[in-house]
Design a protein that fits this description.
By secondary structure, this protein is of the alpha/beta class. The chain is 38% helix and 13% strand. The protein has eleven helices and ten strands. It has an eight-stranded parallel β-sheet with strand order 9-8-7-6-5-4-3-10, with helices on one face. Strands 1-2 form a two-stranded antiparallel ribbon. Helix 3 links the parallel strand 5 and strand 6. The longest helix is centred in the middle third of the chain and has 15 residues. The two termini are 31 Å apart.
């Protein structure tokens, strides 16, 4: 396993981040394909044994049970100061007023709820899951600054949004002397590369760590285009992200994988990891072999002609995932 700094910070993260959305009691939330505690713990232990130290979850995943399972496993299998725990806030956690969003009330309540579920005094990276158009960014940033100053989070990060929104947030934090976002968790893979137009160059300029979600395009890049899985059959959000014309990219990935005698997943992840601005792709797994592929992808070097072969089939997309 390789380790790298998260943007311009001194925080070291593993070159693969384990995404924990697939861990959670299936009857809680909207992920019927998620794994229960026993299966989740086995994968978390395997990840730690492979040298993965960075784990990304969210309060909304399986109605909080992802945080619970992840927290218990890390407490049992690792030392707290040797792992990096990231979680997120924005989505609805309960019905009624103030049950979602990035108001001061929501942030100060949800950080405590996440810490309780994770069984820790602090998270290493506290991220806003999406932009909140109903709350002034000043209110959100000051509340996040207070969370950091209270010792409940070491760093703060953001997830999918427009570049102008992210620029506004960084400028506003600098203007007031508040804690700055250090990372961007955005939608980026061989099928969806719209982030290359503005967000990724901006992150490079600002020294922001990039930790992409869905680097395997919801599994699309790991299997034949027409193949279905339990997740793809029930993933309504995922069905909005990709289109039939993306099939050619999937086929190119399979061709390069055959040439190297590796899985398509290794090729797709190697491509993401080798982008200069990417710090650590977030990989979700439900099987041991998927985790092995993720780790092995770090040793696969793609030649320039192979990168061109993979990239030339790209077709522009409408913005998706915000």
């Amino acid at each position: 396993m390789r380790y790298t700094r998260l943007g311009n910070t001194g925080l070291e993260v593993s070159a693969i981040t384990l995404g924990c959305m697939s861990f959670g009691e299936p009857e809680r939330g909207t992920h019927p394909w998620s794994l229960g505690e026993e299966a989740s713990r086995a994968l978390i232990k395997q990840a730690l044994d492979a040298g993965i130290t960075t784990f990304d979850t969210a309060n909304v995943y399986s109605d909080g049970s992802s945080e619970e399972i992840t927290g218990r496993a890390l407490k049992d299998f690792a030392r707290r100061d040797e792992v990096v725990i990231a979680t997120k806030i924005f989505n609805r956690m309960r019905p009624g007023p103030n049950g979602a969003g990035l108001s001061r009330k929501a942030i100060l309540a949800e950080i405590d709820n996440s810490l309780r579920r994770l069984g820790t005094d602090y998270v290493d990276l506290y991220q806003i899951h999406r932009w909140d158009p109903l709350t002034p960014i000043e209110e959100t940033l000051e509340a996040l600054h207070d969370v950091v100053k209270a010792g409940k989070a070491r760093y703060i990060g953001a997830s999918s949004m427009y570049t102008w929104q992210f620029a506004k947030a960084l400028y506003t934090a600098d203007l007031h002397g508040w804690t700055r976002f250090v990372s961007m968790q955005n939608h980026y893979n061989l099928i969806y590369r719209e982030e290359e137009r503005d967000m990724l160059p901006f992150c490079a300029d600002q020294g922001i760590g990039v930790i992409p979600w869905s680097p395997l395009a919801r599994g699309r890049l790991t299997r034949p285009w027409d193949a279905q899985t339990a997740r793809s059959d029930t993933d309504g959000f995922g069905k909005t992200l990709y289109h039939p014309e993306d099939r050619t990219v999937v086929e190119r990935v399979a061709d390069v994988a055959l040439k190297h005698s590796v899985s398509p997943a290794q090729v797709a992840l190697a491509w993401v990891s080798q982008r200069p601005v990417v710090t650590s792709p977030i990989v979700g797994v439900t099987r041991s072999g998927q985790l092995e592929d993720a780790v092995a992808s770090l040793d696969l070097r793609l030649e320039a002609d192979e990168v061109a072969q993979l990239e030339e089939a790209y077709r522009p997309h409408s913005v998706a995932g915000h």
